[in-house]
């Protein structure tokens, strides 16, 4: 059992899906959790209530991760209200399927902005309080798409691959401060993001997954919590897939 008592965590895009699962799991391990949301305050508050009902501590914090000032203010708020910041999970991400030849430059920029620039901005803001505590854990939510490339998702695949570069560079730069930086690469996880996958694609994907099921947020959350624990103190700059064996 991982013990994250006295740790403070910030999870971006945590009002639903994988981020929600990660927030709940970090709280279950004892961390105080800041549940970031962009628009859905009600959903973020519901996650906080669930955490509180289980005896944990959580606050909902609003910020669009692509907005540098909003991100800096959010981190300030977390430190002021929860007493520090040691764990950052850069989870916020979006998709917008389009073939490369039809992909609008604005769509490219938006997808890269949320997944990659958002992670950079949050990391930049969170590193200072982590340095103060001389302890930190940063987990970046990449994707198998960043490792394999995904059809109709050139922007998404590029952003998720870019996250791996950010992970490694930050891991090298921050190692001396007691901060580890790792990436998690989910395969297909059942969330709103994958809910409208058509049957044909779902069948084709399933046939490529040795464990013969799609993942659930808890599958990803278990790894994230472990990476945030002291047991993972000697692991940094790594990418670990959670995909039932889809990519090996
Ligand atoms: P989701 O759409 O349910 O959740 C994404 C969350 O990010 C939402 O809460 C959304 O509001 C938030 N978000 C989007 N833009 C934001 C912004 N600008 N600022 C703050 N928050 C923002 O999807 P999910 O499946 O839970 O995905 C979570 C992460 O996991 C994403 O980074 C996604 O790319 C990654 N991922 C998901 C899968 C999958 O199969 N579901 C696979 C690989 C990677």
Total DSSP E strands: 7
Identify the quaternary structure here: single chain
The major pleated sheet works out as: 7 strands, parallel
Low-confidence stretches: none
Share of helical residues: 40-55%
Strand proportion, as a percent range, falls in 5-15%
Give the overall shape, derived from the CA principal axes.
globular
- Which small molecules are bound? nicotinamide-adenine-dinucleotide
How are the strands ordered across the major sheet?
A: 3-2-1-4-5-6-7
Mean pLDDT value: 97
Structural classification? alpha/beta
Summarize the structure in words.
The chain has helices at residues 17-28, 41-53, 68-82, 105-133, 144-148, 154-174, 199-207, 217-227, and strands spanning 8-11, 32-37, 58-62, 87-90, 136-141, 179-186, 239-242. It is of the alpha/beta class. The mean pLDDT is 97.
């Amino acid at each position: 059992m991982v013990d994250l008592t006295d740790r403070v965590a910030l999870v971006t895009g945590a009002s639903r899906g994988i981020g929600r699962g990660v927030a709940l799991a970090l709280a279950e391990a004892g961390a105080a959790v800041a549940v970031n949301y962009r628009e859905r305050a009600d959903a973020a508050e519901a996650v906080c209530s669930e955490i509180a009902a289980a005896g944990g501590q959580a606050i909902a914090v609003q910020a669009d991760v692509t907005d540098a000032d909003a991100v800096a203010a959010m981190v300030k708020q977390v430190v002021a209200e929860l007493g520090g910041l040691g764990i950052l999970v850069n989870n916020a991400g979006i998709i917008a399927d389009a073939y490369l030849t039809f992909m609008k430059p604005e769509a490219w920029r938006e997808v890269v902005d949320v997944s990659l620039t958002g992670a950079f901005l949050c990391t930049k803001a969170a590193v200072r309080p982590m340095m103060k505590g001389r302890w930190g854990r940063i987990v970046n939510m990449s994707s198998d798409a960043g490792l394999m490339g995904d059809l109709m998702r050139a922007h998404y695949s590029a952003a998720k691959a870019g996250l791996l570069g950010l992970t490694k560079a930050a891991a090298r730069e921050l190692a001396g401060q007691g901060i580890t930086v790792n990436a998690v690469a989910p395969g297909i996880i059942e969330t709103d993001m994958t809910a409208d996958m058509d049957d044909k694609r779902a069948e084709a994907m399933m046939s490529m997954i040795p464990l013969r099921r799609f993942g659930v947020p808890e599958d990803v959350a278990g790894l994230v919590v472990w990476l945030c624990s002291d047991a993972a103190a000697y692991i940094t700059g790594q990418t670990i897939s959670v995909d039932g064996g889809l990519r090996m």
